Amino acid sequence: MLSISLFKRAVSQIRHWISEIAYSYMLFLVFVLMMLAAIWAVILHLIDVERTGAEHTATVMSQELVATYQAQAVRALREIDQTLKLVKYTYEIKGKPDALLELKAGGLLPAELIFVVSITDRHGDVVASTQANGRINIAEQDNFKMARQSDVLAVNRPLPGSVELQFSRRLMAPDGSFSGVVSVTVDATYFVSGYEKSLLGEQGVIGMMGTDGVFRARRTGDVVSVGDSVDYPSMAPGADDDESLPQVLVSSWDGVRRYTSARKLYDFPMTVIAGLSEQEQLAEYHRHVQVYLWWASVSSALLMLFAVLLARMRYQLDQSHLRELAERRQTENSLRIAAAAFDSQEAMIVTDVHSVILKVNRAFTENTGYTLAEVVGQTPSIFKSGRHNAMFYKEMWEAIDNQGLWQGEIWDRRKDGTVFPKWMTISAVKDENGEVTNYVGSHYDITERKKSEVRINELAYYDQLTGLPNRTLLMDRLRQAIADSDSCGYCALIFIDLDNFKTINDTLGHHVGDLLLKQVAIRLASCVRAEDTVGRLGGDEFVVVLTCLNNSKISAAAQTEVVGHNVLSTLNQKYHLNEVEFHNTPSIGATLFIGEQTSIDDLMKQADLAMYRSKEAGRNAIRFFDPDMESAVMERATLESDLRRAVTEQQFLLHFQPQIEGEDRLTGAEVLVRWQHPKRGMLMPADFIQLAEDTKLILPLGRWVLESACAQLAIWASQPEMAHLTLAVNVSAHQFHQHDFIEQVLSALDNSGANPQRLKLELTESLLVANVDKIIEKMSVLKVQGVAFSLDDFGTGYSSLSYLKRLPLDQLKIDRSFVSDVLSDPNDAAIANTIIALANSLGMGVIAEGVETVAQRDFLAQAGCYCYQGYFFSRPLPLGGFEAYAQKLRVQADGRKILKEVIRLA
Amino acid sequence: MKKNLSNMNRLGLAVAGLVLSLNCRASMADVIAVVSARNPVTSLSKEQIVNIFTGKSTLFPNGEQAQPVDQTEGVVTRDEFYLTFAGKSAAQIKANWAKLIFTGRGRPPKTVLNDSEVKKWIAENPNAIGYIQRNMVDASVKALIRE
User: Fold this and answer.
1) Distances in Å between the alpha carbon of A146 and those of A121, A167, A750?
2) DSSP 8-state secondary structure symbol assigned to residue B30
3) Which chain A residues are within 8 Å of B72, Cβ to Cβ?
4) Predicted pLDDT of residue B10
5) How far apart are CA A350 and CA A440, in angstroms?
6) Dist. CA A156–CA A184, nearest whole Å
7) Of A204, A826, B43, B78, which residue is most buried, by most CB within 10 angstroms?
8) What would the DSSP string read from start to end of A45-89?
9) Residue A524 has pLDDT above 70, yes or no
């Protein structure tokens, strides 16, 4: 472990060191070049020294060799000459050629193996020889000729094909005359047998030549040459000087460069040379040079390789350093840009992955009022306005998680508590692994934009002068009213035009005209319900849309006329404009609509036309587009005043429609009101009840009916045959919702003394649509007194079964519309069955109205409904008629009873 | 004009000699070295014998002067001797002596004409050493045992 860590440390140290070196790679390159220069300088110097040494060695060797050779050659020649002189002496003393034999026997002659000694006569014929060679004449040989001439050591030039050298001296006869020659013959190789390869190599040379330039012997390696001649002066330089230095010469005979030395053999006409092949002598030097060059080259190459590697490493380091720098610069730039961007006008907030706030910018603190220190470490939930529910935030985070981004409008709270809208962008910041590291939110306050939107909206939809809806919005409301009218009843469109407005404008000025228009706007708004619309089309034209008036066209028209008259009277009141008091009148046109039978354009034309008709009628009036409607309204107005009188003058009377249980048992009657109109005669409820409702005359009327019914019950109470009958009285919604309704009922009962248990109040479903608890409370109070309740028209409205269960009802009444088709329409049959089943299950009674045939009655009886009301039994009857009907039923019943008794008795 | 003494040619000569000697073996006895019967030396190695005959050595192992006696050039026994003992031809032996003489380092041995002459010489010179055909050995000489 320790060694590994040491090793690692060492490696890192070396790496560091290398990188340091590499860091200064230029210096290193210089260093390497210097190293190279040094290496090569040393190598070249070494080569130079080596060469000098080799040359010196060769020179010295050449000199020594030639000196040795000189000595050897001189001695060899002397020995030969000694022999010659010895033989000559002996011969000349003895005068006999056989001197040779004596000398030989005496061992005075040189070794026979090498040397042949011979004697010739004066003619050149060999007369004695140490070697028996037969007759040989040497008279033609130049050594013979030379020896005959003088007493010198003569040497032959070897004949072609011969390698023998023959040295001769003259022999003289006692008289001094020439008598022959003595010769020593020796193989030329003898003179070059001292060739030592260890010294001279294969290309060295030793040789002996005459001063005539003819080689007597020459040897190179194992090759001996004899007899060839060369240019003596050039091939034997310095031969005369024993101290002369060798010269490098190209040997003329074989072209080899040699360190050549020459020495003259002074006693003899001979010169020896010794030559050392320059190539051989310098071979070692050349080998060394090669080795030096090889080493120098290899080390140079290694050095350069090392340098290149280091330079490359350094280059890469530099590059990566530069890259790092560039990256850092880029990062710094990015950060600078980010910082600049962060301090933008847009409020920014940065959180960590847990939504903990890390940073906000100045725009954020300025916008929210929080300081940086107050929000860092918090979560953005501190800004919650409470305007958004949990679902809103859930969806927001789902978008951030799934798309990495959420954008939208959000209401937040400032530090001072004010809530403001902002346009918010939240992005998830992810690292390279795709993991969310931060969230960045930016927002800008859109309070002003919101205001602008409202303002734009106002400009787009509202009249600038009066603040009323302009034409655009009016058209929109009108469209809406048309759509709604299908379900909620007739609506009205009213055009209002100010009479003589132009004159006011012209005489009093536009600003007064404008003030008037503003006043008119305010007054018009006070004349309509909240759900209605008052608008200004432009100029002095105003429009009113009345929505959901009534399902009855007449009623709706009447209501419209009421509003119209209200407008007339309101606008007729005095105006105070700029201290000026004056009077103005409008002309009003109206039209009614329901559903989409008439287009908006047509409705506008209709209302406009009606308005012009009112102008034609002399202004300050209201006219309907439909003339019939106008007359109907007129008629209705008449009828209304008649009705008022009728209520005060008690022009009403009660009719009774019998209610039957089973076959013919009378249980009571439903009370129905009739109006005995002084001019029109008897009017049915359908003719006036709606009007009574509209005009609230239903209240006194209803009260009269209730009191009359109670009075009748009290009368019947004293008649045994009528005392058990109940009376069912219809109660309108208006009546029932009166705050003193209970008191009215109770006082009617008290005042009449009627038995509350004989009184049954019939309520309609429409009465039950609102405030059920209150209704139940009222019903319960009366219920305790014994008053019964029946639900009229059951099945036509929208009764909630849960309400139905809670209501203290005694009876459900199946509406005549179901009963009439109960045999022909399976749906109606099903409804009837259901109502019956429902009543049974809720423990209520059930009665069917409008029963007109026996089949209907039989169907209902089979379904479980045993109480009936309808023409099959009897139409509504005046009091007398009803009492007679009751009498008749009684008689019939009694008759049957008697009959049964009779049958039984019989 | 040129006399080639290259190793190749020497080898050729040696082979020729060897062939010659082998051919003669049937009719001739081996050549052996002999000394005087009085000479205490009884055995010499081939190398010691050759050294004495080629001038490299002048002494017997016992320190006595050795006087080699050669046979005349061209005698078969001679050629056989040098070929058998030194593995050299007559020409090589001659070149060797030429070199020794020229460089002043020695002289060739005395030569006699034949085996009988050798025996005669040895008989007269107790320090002499020569070579003869084995079948020529008699009481006058002592054949050296080749070690």
Assistant:
1) 15, 10, 208
2) P
3) 112
4) 45
5) 5
6) 11
7) A204
8) HHHHHHHHHHHHHHHHHHHHHHHHHHHHHHHHHHHHHHHHHHHHH
9) yes
| Per-residue tokens: B98 | 């030429």
CA of A80: which chain B residue's CA is closest? B102
Query: Which among A69, A206, A99, A190 has a CA at the least distance from the CA of B108?
Result: A190
Q: Which of A128, A126, A121, A125 is nearest to A173 (CA)?
A: A121
Q: Which segments within A512-563 are labelled E, that is strand?
A: 533-538, 541-550
For residues A154 and A180, is the Cβ–Cβ distance under 8 A?
Answer: no
Instruction: Write the CA distances from A171 to A84, A150, A155, A852, integer angstroms.
Output: 10, 10, 15, 206
ipTM above 0.90, yes or no: no
Residue in A113, A161, A194 closest to B108 by CB: A113
Whole-angstrom Cα distance, residue A720 to residue A717?
7
**pTM (2 decimals)?**
0.45
Q: Could you tell me what percent of chain A has a pLDDT over 70?
A: 97
Query: Which residue has 């989409």 as its token pair?
Result: A596
Residues A787-796 have pLDDT tens digits of 999 988 776 6
Rounded Cα–Cα distance for residues B109 and B50 (Å): 12
- Taking the C-alpha atoms of residue A642 and residue A646, their distance in angstroms, rounded to an integer, is 6
Q: What span, in angstroms and rounded, lies between the C-alpha atoms of A122 and A168?
A: 13
The single-letter code of the amino acid at B17 is G
Residue whose tokens read 């390279």 = A432
* Alpha-carbon distance values, B49 to B29, B109, B133 (Å): 19, 13, 16
Residues A415, A417, A418, A419: is their CA dihedral positive or negative? Answer: positive
Residue range A494-519: mean pLDDT, rounded: 86
Q: Which residues of B touch A (CB under 8 A)?
A: 1-7, 72-73, 94-95, 97-99, 101-104, 107-108, 110-111
Nearest to B98 among A158, A161, A189 (CB): A189
Chain position carrying tokens 């260890």: A198
Give the A:B interface size as CB pairs under 8 Å: 66
Q: What whole-number distance in Å separates Cα of residue A118 and Cα of residue A895? A: 217
Residues on chain B touching A190 (C-beta within 8 angstroms): 98, 101-102
DSSP-derived secondary structure letter, A229: B
Q: Which residue of A75, A113, A161 is in closest CB contact with B104?
A: A75
Per-position DSSP letters for A853-878, written without gaps between them: SHHHHHHHHHHT--EE-STTT---EE
| Chain B hits for A225, Cβ within 8 Å | 1-2
Strand partners, A791: A763, A812
φ and ψ at A398, to 5 degrees? Answer: -60, -40
- CA–CA gap between residue B97 and residue A111 (Å, rounded): 9
Q: Of A134-138, A431-435, A471-475, B108-112, where does mean pLDDT reach its minimum?
A: A134-138
From residue A542, alpha-carbon distances to A475, A524, A536, B22 in Å are: 13, 9, 4, 164
pLDDT at A110: 86
Residue A675 CB contacts under 8 Å (≥ 6 apart), including other chains: A643, A646, A651, A652, A682, A683, A687, A688
Kindly state the DSSP code that residue A190 receives in the 8-state scheme: G
Find out whether A72 and B102 touch, Cβ atoms under 8 Å: yes
* A72 near B CB under 8 A: yes
The whole-number average pLDDT for the span A263-292 is 87
Mark which residues 121-140 of A lie under 8 Å from B by CB.
none
Could you give the C-alpha distances from A440 to A349, A405, A425, A568, B81, in angstroms and in order?
A: 6, 10, 8, 63, 119
Q: Where are the beta strands (DSSP E) in chain B?
A: 3-4, 31-36, 43-44, 67-71, 110-112, 128-133, 141-143, 145-146
